[in-house]
Amino acid sequence: MVFLTCLLSALLLVFSFPQTECSILAWAALVPLFSILDGQKPWRAFRRAYLCGFLFFAAAIGWFVYVTYIGAFLLVAFLSLYFALFGVIFIYFQRLAVVPRIFVLSSAWVALEFIRDHFLTGFGWVMLGHSQFKNLWLIQIADMTGVYGVSFLVVLVNLLIFENWRARSLLLKANIIVLALLSAVLVYGYSVIAHQGNYQTIRVGVVQPNIPLAVDWDESRKPWIVDRNIQLTRQLRAQKPDLIVWPETSLPGVISDSPDLTGEIRANAARLATPILIGSIAQDGDRYYNSAFLIGADGQMLGRYDKIHLVPFGEYLPLRPVLGWVNKFIDLDDFTPGKTYKIFSLAPLSPKFAVLICFEDTLGYLRRHFARAGADFFVNMTNDAWFGDTKAPFLHLQSAVFGCVENHRSLARAANTGVSALVDPWGRIIAAVSNGNGKKILVNGTAFGELPLVHELTFYTKYGDVFTYLCFLCILVAGIIP
Questions:
Q1: Residue 129: CB partners within 8 Å, gap ≥ 6?
Q2: Distance between CA 77 and CA 54 in Å, rounded?
Q3: CATH number of the domain bearing residue 223
Q4: Residue 321: what pLDDT?
Q5: Model confidence over 187-230: pLDDT tens digits?
Q6: Which of 52, 113, 163, 307 is catalytic?
Q7: pTM value?
Q8: Do residues 272 and 369 both lie within one domain?
Q9: Which of 50, 155, 303, 415 could form a disulfide with 84 if both were Cys (CB 3.0 to 4.6 A apart)?
């Protein structure tokens, strides 16, 4: 019975995310879990919540096995601890009255998501709030609270449903307070969406070549890969974009090892009179960087950004002195992280942009830093070919959408196999690469859109995770007051 109940909660959570995207399920998905935690001893609650977390993460991020089996297992086993800790906290605060209890427990969930997003380099995918990325009115609150505010509301409603069920009656006070809060958030979201100004725009095209991973590492296929990107780039000529974005490592290998191919790309940028942003590997001595290179409309190299936040178990081995034995299974050499928060500009007075490579566009601190540094819009180049036809590319997009809302910055995403898309500052996907049947991954093509440029800084951009710190404070106060 316990296993089936944990499985039910886990499945409801999984169905809230891609590719099913029944986001409404998230609002009640935790209720079965709460029912088997209620009244338990802390150790038993720990085990039950851990089981639910393990089932959820195994289904939601099981695609990580395409990178490494052992790394995937360790990641799932580790992330499940956050569910387990919540189970213990759930028991500890049962002494509180209903209204403070549901707010303290919602704060605890947010605190654990925040820690998960930052501890040991962080893993911020499949936050509960991400499941609501298409609910535009609801997610606008993220410009003050980040995605954590949306997670807070989802957990709060789950707890309210559970408390009503446990009391076998409607708890009038709790229901009124939660309904009023939720209504205020939706009214705020409506006002943000309804009162948008006339903004300057920039015309951006993105290229999705759909290069199989095996081919991407084939040295002999490099000319073919570059040619495919060039052919797709030429399809954007009629739209007259201000910038064309290629995916991560769209020029495979070390860029300095391919002067002929680099010259061909530069010649095409000059022929089209359009800047092209490409991905490749930079080498400085014995150090290698995952980098983005901007080629100007005259074919000249305008700048380079080196990826700052590397992927654990993908681009480096975390805690190498402790986990060095893992290298026997994955044979991983470490990239070097970049140090400079590079801001690109196409011309002295043109809009400025920041490049986020791979999963950097899911990192709230990095997006905020670039927005404060002067980026008028974001560009993400990624290669999710590692994960095949799975949830991963869609989960990646979900998280990236929140970066737009949090900072009111548009985003252009070029993904090798998808999802390549253009997102406005309020989280609307205004264009995406797809085939005639609406398939967005493992297809090639281009997308084009005019991205609005909002220059003002949001509360979240300026002040960061104030809401989350208030959640920590709420837990602390509730913990020390008898």
A1: 139, 142, 147, 148, 149, 150, 151, 152, 153, 154, 402
A2: 6
A3: 3.60.110.10
A4: 46
A5: 999 999 998 888 999 999 999 999 998 787 777 889 999 999 99
A6: 307
A7: 0.93
A8: yes
A9: 50
The boundaries of the domain holding residue 441 are 201-324+335-453
Choosing from 248, 360, 406, 450, the catalytic residue is 248
Do residues 295 and 415 both lie within one domain?
Answer: yes
* Residue 428 pLDDT: 97
Contact 307, 337 (CB under 8 A): yes
Q: Is 462 a catalytic residue?
A: no
CB-count exposure of residue 293 (10 Å: 0-12, 13-18, 19+):
buried
Is residue 371 situated within a structural domain?
Answer: yes
Residue 458 forms part of a structural domain: no
Read off the pLDDT of residues 392-409 as tens digits, 9 standing for 90 and up: 999 999 999 999 999 999
Classify residue 461: in a domain, yes or no: no
Is 52 considered catalytic here?
no
- Alpha carbons 85 and 238: distance in angstroms, whole number: 55
Q: Is the pLDDT of residue 437 over 60?
A: yes
Question: Looking at 6, 52, 358, 404, which residue is catalytic?
Answer: 358
Dump pLDDT digits (tens) for 272-294. Answer: 999 999 999 999 988 889 999 99
If DSSP codes are grouped into helix, strand and coil, which group holds residue 251?
coil
Six-digit token pair at 445? Answer: 């093509």
- Total count of domains within the chain: 2
Domain match, 435 and 376 both: yes
- 358: annotated active-site residue: yes
356 inside domain: yes
Give me the pLDDT at residue 316, please. 57
